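Hi Y.,

Following your request, here is the sequence exactly as I used it, all 316 residues.
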Amino acid sequence: MGALLADIGGTHARFALLAGAAPGPALTLKVAAYPTVEDAMAAALAALAPPLPCRQAVLALAGPVEEEPVRLTNAPWTFSRTRIAARFGLAEVTLVNDFLALAHALPHLAPGDLLPIAAGAPDPAAPMLVLGPGTGLGASLLLPGRPPRAIPTEGGHIGLAPTNALEDAAVAALRADPAVAGGRAGAEEALSGRGLARLHAMLAARMGAAVPVRDAAAVLAAVPQCPVAAATEALFLDLLAGTAGDLALATGARGGVFLGGGILPRLAHRLDAARFAARFAAKAPMGGYMSGIRLSLIQRPDPAFLGLAALATLRI
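Below is the corresponding structure, written out as tokens. Let me know if you'd prefer a different format.
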């Protein structure tokens, strides 16, 4: 029997079928278009039309997966394994953090799925770290072993560590923003879709520029012709590189650091790899330690499905 796989974020829910060893093509639905996850699953099953009934579902969710009902961090859907199983006649329903699924994908990525940013010599006995900005900022570890073990984290909520006056101004703007919970400049508040919009507004005010209010997609689209948007992208990438380096130090991720999420693939063609790698490694007095860590950007579309397929196969 097949399995239904899903990668569900705050904005989009992606579904695919697993009938053999590899997932089929993904179907993308907007989370806001469906009142519940069950409604979206029903629409996905109708569109994907599995040849045989699915008896298993493995769902990756953008948020901590602890007590049920599980809630998305940045969308109103809730998840209950028993409720989903009863609705669709499933024998097994597995709920995992979205970046845990992405961590399980790491051993299955081919060289062509990755854009190298910093060379290094991965330690096969050390953890691998994957992080990335999208609706939020996710982070997870994969520990080597047979089978490997993934550990979801809430590392995206660590505090930002500014290194210059411009980054100090960004942190101050976050602390002053009434929409930022507790007035705390957590990394996700800058390194996410809403974070891009916040950085853009801060830089527009700082530069005295009369530019429209822009969401993340509009900021990235405006980069080629707008100095404020270009400065926003540069600041965003500098802060992300520094945060990735901090997380690598904190977790000992000498097995490699991988960048994913929904935002970075859209600007990979403009990424200054040398600048990003330099900021990632600028952790004095630990520069030598950081220089040995391989850093890569995941370019494969929907990579989490490789991890979901691996998780489903372990349970079939």
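The longest helix spans residues 227-251.

Thanks again,
Q.
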